[in-house]
Structures are given as structure tokens and as C-alpha cells.
Amino acid sequence: MIKVFEAHVATESEYHHPGVCTIQGGIPMIETGEGLLALDEIQCAGKKLMPGKSFLAGCRHWVEEEAL
What is this structure's pTM? Predict the structure, then answer.
């Protein structure tokens, strides 16, 4: 489980697969019904608040897909 403290809308996407995790520019993103949501600051359960890029360094299950 993660808590998102800061995020922004990255881009609109021609693909709409809500819940699909991707990486663009070294930032974790989640596909929504209307585009990509970039996760800027995240807190994992029992961990400190961290930037999205730091989160990816320790996250082994985040799926990287081709840039949309």
C-alpha cells in the first residue's frame, strides 16, 4: 500500500487502461481514464515520505511500459 502526497497530471494518453503502472522520465505513473498521473511524492507503508524517483529505486514490482 502507498500513500500519494503529491502528484500531477503528466499527459493525456491515447490509451485508457486505468490502473496500469508505467514509468516515464524516471517517474512512476499510473494510467487513468483520462491520461497519466505522475506520482511526485509517495509514502510506502512503514516508510518515510520520498520522491517518486527514490521510490522506483527500491520498488521491484512497478511495471515499466513503452512511452505512450
Answer: 0.79
